[in-house]
């Protein structure tokens, strides 16, 4: 089902509320009802997580421990090849990896027992380092399908084409994207920066209790980085959380992480706050991890 969306670049967009952090009130209300977790329960609790590559049997994660509470922004940094993306992919259930030990509890439920799709419907969102193309599926079809699936999971009625249109327009404005992108196939022919922006559009449309952004800042020009950071800041609320993987301070200054972690050899080697990034930049990972 393709929505007939305008292809001109300057449509009359629905103005966003002035609030710096608009949310999805109806979804949020329902989230409180269906969410197993309480304010005292961590949103995500990772204990001694170990995982290997299925094909080669090589263990990459050697006992990751991490707790994310509602409203927190966590940054994971670390040397190339230290296991950051693997950790993120294991959390969303990527089939290349097999969990060999430890536990992951998300909103009070065993995440490792859920299929990848169930994890997504439960409110876990991941933006991959290299977002993939989906040939033959238009962006609007994909977004509407995914959003309605999430609404169904939450016990909400599916949105009809007109409601979807207004909703998507609002989210497009949030990420400062032209409506033309809705009519194009998902990521097909998109530039690197456009793909990253499109990932944030997906996050804005779907909403998430925990958004994992893997190097969302790589390949973005300064304006795109600011747009993406502004959009993420407006999506964040005291109820949801962000786990971002990055190599750069620029995005950290814009998103103000509450926690900064350094991953080393498949483990979280050190945890601190934003001030640790200065030490990393001055002394490198070896010293900081040690
Ligand atoms: N599917 C796979 N097949 C083979 N090797 C893999 C696979 N996934 C991860 N690895 C290896 O595991 C190690 C960790 O990779 P990972 O992508 O998690 O690192 P990273 O910390 O995200 O690195 P970067 O900062 O460069 O993105 C690397 O040595 C990588 O080559």
Automatic annotation (TrEMBL):
Pfam families given in the database record: ABC_tran
Residue stretches making up the ABC transporter domain: 44-290
Disordered: annotated segments: 1-20
GO molecular function, one term: ATP hydrolysis activity
Residue ranges, compositional bias (Polar residues): 1-12
UniProt-listed Gene3D superfamilies: P-loop containing nucleotide triphosphate hydrolases
Keywords: ATP-binding, Nucleotide-binding
Protein name stated in the entry: ABC transporter domain-containing protein
């Amino acid at each position: 089902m393709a929505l007939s969306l305008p292809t001109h670049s300057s449509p009359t967009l629905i103005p966003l509320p002035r609030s710096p952090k608009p949310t999805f009130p109806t979804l949020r209300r329902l989230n409180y009802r269906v969410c197993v977790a309480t304010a005292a329960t961590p949103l995500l609790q990772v204990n001694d997580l170990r995982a290997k590559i299925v094909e080669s049997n090589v263990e990459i994660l050697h006992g990751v421990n991490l707790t994310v509470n509602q409203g927190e922004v966590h940054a994971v940094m670390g040397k190339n090849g230290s296991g950051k993306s693997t950790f993120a992919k294991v959390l969303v259930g990527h089939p290349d990896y097999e969990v060999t030990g430890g536990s992951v509890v998300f909103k009070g439920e065993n995440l490792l027992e859920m299929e990848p799709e169930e994890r997504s419907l439960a409110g876990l969102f991941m933006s991959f380092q290299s977002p993939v193309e989906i040939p033959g599926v238009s962006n609007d079809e994909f977004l509407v399908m995914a959003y309605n699936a999430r609404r169904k999971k939450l016990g909400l009625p599916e949105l009809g084409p007109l409601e979807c249109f207004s909703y998507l327009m609002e989210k497009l404005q949030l990420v400062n994207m032209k409506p033309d992108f809705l009519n194009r196939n998902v990521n097909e022919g998109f530039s690197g920066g456009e793909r990253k922006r499109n990932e944030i559009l997906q996050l804005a449309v779907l909403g998430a209790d925990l958004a994992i952004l893997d190097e969302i800042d790589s390949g973005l020009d300064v304006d795109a980085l600011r747009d993406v950071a502004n959009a993420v800041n407006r999506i964040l609320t005291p109820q949801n959380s962000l786990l971002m993987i990055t190599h750069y301070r620029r995005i950290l200054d814009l998103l103000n992480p509450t926690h900064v972690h350094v991953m080393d050899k498949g483990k979280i080697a050190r945890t601190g706050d934003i001030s640790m990034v200065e030490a990393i930049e001055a002394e490198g990972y070896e010293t900081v991890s040690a």
